[in-house]
Amino acid sequence: MKKLLIACLPALLAGCSYYNQFVERMHTDTLVYQCDEKPLTVKINRTRQQASFVWDDKLLTLQQGLSASGARYTDGVYVFWSKGNGATVYKRDRIVLNNCQLIPER
């Protein structure tokens, strides 16, 4: 019995890892915006309360912060702020992506 358990353990652990990745993907939304400057793809992870996107060839992961209205994510330097179908990205209080409009899923 012990040998069977030891033999099956790697498969069980791999299954748990796959399940966790599956649940993570279920709780992540991919939003595509068209901004004045260029398109922006943002992944919102509701479980971790994070937003991530690529800017200046860097993957930014921002934590959800306080917001009077809409949703605000920040890392202390960058801010992604969205309200309704619009969004704005700031770097040190300067707008770097403006007039971002959510592109509906097809």
Automatic annotation (TrEMBL):
It holds the Pfam family MliC. Keywords: Lipoprotein, Membrane, Palmitate, Signal. The keyword Protein biosynthesis does not apply. Coiled coil: none annotated. SUPFAM superfamilies: YdhA-like. InterPro entries: MliC, MliC_sf. It comes from the Bacteria. Residues 33-94 form the C-type lysozyme inhibitor domain. Residues 1-19 form the signal peptide. This is C-type lysozyme inhibitor. It comes from Kosakonia oryzae. The gene is mliC.
